[in-house]
């Protein structure tokens, strides 16, 4: 996350910047003592995610500044003020200010609000990325099953790239995940006329198992092998979660962490795993509930997007 702080009190700017740095919430990309010279284009050039701005300042106050930049700047606002009148707070909310803390700065309150804002931003980015992937898939014109087979290698390569990014390219379940991508692509091509036709996990695991088994085989054989594949996939996804969480602990702004953490996992789960790794639990790992379906869906749509952009 990238922050910008606007406050006429140097002590407030310093303490807030120190808090963000100490808690490793992100980077303070800039500061200003007044909003008079602040523009949306300047903030956008700095890629600011969260603007922390004082309500009352001598030349141009927080409300006037937000009013001037709100149409072009699409980050989040954190309003800082000693004033708590309903009228001013109401004006702030009408301008899109959703988060507000009072002075003097209370460390616990500010941390709580900033964590909430960061989680909200990660969620919004995740939704935007998934929507982009879905849009890319919907725009794609199916060219028949023969063409799908010709595309298979490239789609598999896109999947291989993603697995490498997620830190599981060498895991046993990685081959199953690649098979799941290709099976899902063929399944959606055959069911393109059906609304919301993404196959269930049961259909996917059964499908990739039938492709692997040599005839003759029984339903019991399929069930047994599908269960084994599911266990391999779950272990691989757990390893990916651990890899992503480790990157986040090393550098919260690491591009792989920023790109994939909230896209493939619920961010609360990532934070829990980061906490577990920090505590170094002497080899004892707590059970972390993984949303396998979300992971598989995002993996497929991301692989599809990468392949289509090549």
Write the layout of secondary structure elements.
Elements: E1 2-6, H1 10-22, E2 27-32, H2 40-45, E3 50-54, H3 62-69, E4 76-81, H4 86-94, E5 99-102, H5 107-139, H6 145-165, H7 173-190, H8 201-212, H9 219-250, H10 255-264, H11 267-279, H12 292-309
Parallel strand pairs: 1-2, 1-3, 3-4, 4-5
Helix pairs in contact: 5-10, 5-12, 6-7, 6-12, 7-8, 7-9, 7-12, 8-9, 9-10, 9-11
Kindly summarize this structure in a few lines.
The chain is α/β, with parallel strands linked by helices and 310 residues long.
Spatial arrangement of strands, main beta sheet: 2-1-3-4-5
What distance lies between the first and last C-alpha atoms, to the nearest angstrom? 29 Å
Structural class: alpha/beta
Write down the secondary-structure element order. EHEHEHEHEHHHHHHHH
Alpha-carbon Rg, integer: 24 Å
Number of strands: 5
**Which percent range describes the beta-strand content?**
5-15%
Q: Which spans have pLDDT < 50 for at least 5 consecutive residues?
A: 141-152
Q: Major sheet, described briefly?
A: 5 strands, parallel
- Considering DSSP H and I runs of 4 or more, what fraction of the residues is helical? 55-70%
Number of domains: 2
Task: Figure out the total of helices.
Answer: 12
What's the pLDDT, averaged over the residues? 85
User: What coarse outline follows from CA principal-axis ratios?
Assistant: elongated
Describe this structure in words.
Residues 2-118 form the Response regulatory domain. One of its GO terms (biological process) is phosphorelay signal transduction system. The modification 4-aspartylphosphate is found at residue 54. The protein folds into two domains: 2-120, Response regulator (Rossmann fold, 3-Layer(aba) Sandwich); 140-309, no CATH class. Helices cover 62% and strands 8% of the residues. It has helices at 10-22, 40-45, 62-69, 86-94, 107-139, 145-165, 173-190, 201-212, 219-250, 255-264, 267-279, 292-309; strands at residues 2-6, 27-32, 50-54, 76-81, 99-102. Helix 5 packs across helix 12 (292-309) and helix 9 (219-250) packs across helix 10 (255-264). The radius of gyration is 24 Å and the shape is elongated. Residues 141-152 have low confidence and may be disordered.
């Amino acid at each position: 996350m990238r922050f910008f702080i606007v406050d006429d009190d140097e002590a407030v700017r310093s303490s807030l910047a120190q808090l963000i740095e100490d808690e490793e919430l992100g980077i303070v990309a800039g500061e200003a003592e007044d909003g008079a010279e602040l523009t949306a284009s300047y903030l956008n050039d700095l890629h600011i995610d969260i603007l922390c701005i004082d309500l009352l300042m001598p030349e141009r106050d927080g409300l006037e500044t937000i009013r001037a930049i709100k149409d072009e700047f699409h980050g989040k606002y954190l309003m800082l003020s000693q004033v708590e009148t309903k009228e001013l707070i109401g004006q702030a909310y009408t301008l899109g200010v959703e988060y507000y803390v009072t002075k003097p700065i209370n460390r616990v309150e500010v941390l709580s609000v900033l964590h909430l804002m960061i989680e909200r931003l990660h969620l919004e980015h995740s939704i935007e990325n998934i929507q982009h992937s879905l849009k890319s898939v919907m725009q794609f014109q199916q060219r028949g099953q023969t063409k799908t087979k010709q595309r298979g290698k490239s789609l598999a390569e896109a999947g291989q790239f993603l697995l490498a990014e997620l830190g599981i390219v060498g895991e046993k379940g990685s081959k199953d995940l690649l098979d799941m991508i290709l099976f899902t692509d063929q399944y959606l091509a055959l069911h393109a006329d059906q609304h919301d036709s993404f196959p269930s996990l049961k259909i996917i695991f059964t499908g990739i198992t039938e492709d692997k088994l040599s005839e003759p085989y029984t339903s019991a054989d399929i069930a047994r092998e599908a269960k084994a594949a599911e266990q391999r996939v779950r272990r691989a996804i757990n390893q990916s979660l651990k890899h992503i969480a480790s990157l986040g602990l090393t550098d919260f702004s690491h591009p792989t962490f920023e790109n994939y953490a909230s896209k493939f996992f619920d961010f609360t789960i990532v934070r829990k795993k980061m906490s577990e790794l920090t505590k170094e639990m002497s080899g004892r790992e707590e059970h972390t509930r993984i949303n396998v379906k979300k992971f598989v869906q995002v993996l497929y749509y991301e692989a599809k997007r990468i392949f289509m952009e090549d």
